[in-house]
């Protein structure tokens, strides 16, 4: 036979007499939110130690997220550590690259000395003129061959094959030819000056300088170090363009593509040689956390970087 339910007995007693309050007893356990009164000292110490460890772990996670390098720049945008903030400023890649705004500023908004040096290359000017940087991938040796050796040889063509016996006439022709060649030299130097190049010409010169600085041998264009440096240079160039032109939304996807290509190249380099990988990161000014794991460039983060929020 089943035992009577104490809850049903209470309900029946209340129904029989509305003026009489019948206490109800239940065998169910009661729950309390207060601290355990019989907690031992060892358990309390263990509970407080665990809580302190959890708080410390949460603090480290927050600190880790705050110092996380930006996936686009490769280093934190704002960090209390000066070494982390200046990772790009102290890198080899930045010292190698030429800033096109600084190069173009020398022709229009530079100092008086730069203005005078640039104007000295005009035709008819008697002062010597030598560009600081050369266009079309030329170096100082090639420029010297075109501007020093070639004019001297070309000026001698005026008397070659002629039957001039008078030395005075011969010298006069040579002087006229030399004057014409010097005017050609001034025009040629202005053409070879990198200040007259466009953005594409400056990018070609930067690529040549990167290959020379990061290549493992002469003419090395395929090593991971060179590819990572070229991609980082393009990322910074495109980021600067997007900051100056925030409405150019069509170049945001190519920027993401360059970031993932750089991460792919660096991950391959890490699998080949860890020492070369770490040296390459220091040279291009990128922290390891910016390229390891899953590289995510969010739309909100890109917008904040471009608009400076």
Automatic annotation (TrEMBL):
GO terms for molecular function: structural constituent of ribosome. GO terms for biological process: translation. Residues 40-67 are annotated as: Disordered. Residues 42-54 have a biased composition (Basic residues). GO terms for cellular component: cytoplasm; ribonucleoprotein complex; ribosome. Keywords: Ribonucleoprotein, Ribosomal protein. Residues 55-67 have a biased composition (Basic and acidic residues). InterPro entries: Ribosomal_uS15, Ribosomal_uS15_bac-type, uS15_NS1_RNA-bd_sf. Belongs to the universal ribosomal protein uS15 family. This is Ribosomal protein S15.
């Amino acid at each position: 036979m089943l035992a009577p339910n104490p809850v049903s007995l209470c309900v029946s007693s209340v129904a029989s007499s509305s003026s009489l309050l019948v206490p109800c007893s239940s065998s169910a356990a009661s729950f309390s939110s207060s601290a355990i009164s019989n907690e031992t000292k060892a358990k309390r110490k263990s509970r407080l130690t665990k809580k302190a460890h959890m708080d410390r772990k949460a603090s480290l996670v927050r600190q880790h997220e705050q110092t996380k390098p930006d996936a686009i720049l490769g280093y934190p945008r704002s960090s209390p550590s000066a070494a982390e903030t200046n990772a790009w400023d102290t890198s080899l890649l930045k010292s190698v690259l030429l800033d096109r705004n600084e190069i173009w500023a020398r022709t229009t908004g530079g100092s008086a000395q730069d203005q005078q040096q640039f104007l000295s290359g005009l035709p008819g000017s008697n002062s010597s003129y030598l560009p600081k940087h050369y266009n079309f991938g030329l170096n100082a040796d090639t420029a010297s061959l075109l501007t020093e050796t070639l004019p001297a040889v070309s000026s001698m063509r005026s008397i070659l094959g002629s039957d001039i016996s008078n030395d005075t006439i011969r010298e006069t022709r040579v002087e006229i030819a030399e004057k014409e060649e010097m005017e050609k030299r001034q025009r040629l130097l202005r053409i070879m000056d990198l200040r007259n190049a466009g953005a594409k010409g400056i990018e070609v010169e930067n690529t040549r300088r990167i290959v020379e600085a990061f290549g493992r041998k002469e003419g090395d264009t395929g090593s991971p170090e060179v590819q990572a440096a070229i991609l980082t240079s393009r990322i910074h160039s495109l980021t600067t363009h997007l900051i100056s032109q925030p409405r150019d939304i069509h170049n945001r996807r190519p920027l993401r593509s360059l970031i993932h290509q750089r991460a792919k190249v660096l991950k391959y380099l890490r699998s080949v040689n860890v020492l070369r990988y770490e040296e390459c990161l220091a040279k291009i000014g990128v922290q390891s956390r910016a390229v390891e794991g899953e590289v995510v460039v969010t739309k909100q983060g890109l917008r904040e970087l471009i608009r400076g929020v």
